[in-house]
Amino acid sequence: MILDAFTIADFGCSIGPSTFFAVENIISAVGNKYKKSNQNKTLDFQVFFNDLIDNDFNTLFRSLPSNRKYLVAGVPGSFYTCLFPKKSIHFAHCSTALHWLPKIPEEVFKRGINKGRIQYLGGEKEVTEAYAAHHGEDFGRFLRARGDELVDGGLMALLVFGFAAVDVYSSSGAGMVFEILGSCLEDMAKLKVDSFNLHFYFPSESELKAILIEVNRLFCVGKTAKMASPLSHKLDPKDTNYFVFLKRKGVN
């Protein structure tokens, strides 16, 4: 198939530079394959950077590579909704953003069943179940929206932050970071910490497959792979300086 332009959307782009690396890798792979199959013809690339409306798009655009070979546009809004016309995107990409939920599960907030904690892990079983159910619904909304926006035969690559089991996360560097944050907040405002919860959920591999295959039959899963993270290993809770260093570097 001969195209005039190839559209790429990066969902949850933040302010870079990771999004630029991802886009350039996609363009390199697609461009090379297109040239081989279409007698060395060139292809124009249009890249849409998406994130929430309060994302610092000014910094994002100021940081764009000066030698880029693609056109750019910012698209503010929640990626849990449709953001583009039907069948208008050729490649959808989302990296380490889908664990963020659009809001805290209402039953957790209204019933106050997670008092003294700012995350679901380490709390009551019903809290974890509420977050898991909420994540499943939101991930389904994400997939349905992308299913409408992608052209027939379009591709989507997702890098999802998750753990094999709850106990693995709780003892990992990532778990320790939020435990430290939670204890700091509790010391600062014991009365108000009960009304604050971080709205993220780290799904297991089996949960992702269940949502992708059993709930949403819009996509054919071509390949899945596991990637190690520095914060997935067990760390000493005393290594506060190391936690701070990783988070300042944007390591997840």
Automatic annotation (TrEMBL):
GO molecular function: loganate O-methyltransferase activity
Annotated InterPro entries: MeTrfase_7 (IPR005299), SAM-dependent_MTases_sf (IPR029063)
EC number: 2.1.1.50
Leader sequence residues: none
Gene Ontology terms: biological process: methylation
Record bears the keyword Transferase: yes
Keywords tagged on the record: Methyltransferase, Transferase
Listed PANTHER family: S-ADENOSYL-L-METHIONINE:CARBOXYL METHYLTRANSFERASE FAMILY PROTEIN
Family: Belongs to the methyltransferase superfamily. Type-7 methyltransferase family.
Name under which the protein is recorded: Loganate O-methyltransferase
Protein species of origin: Handroanthus impetiginosus
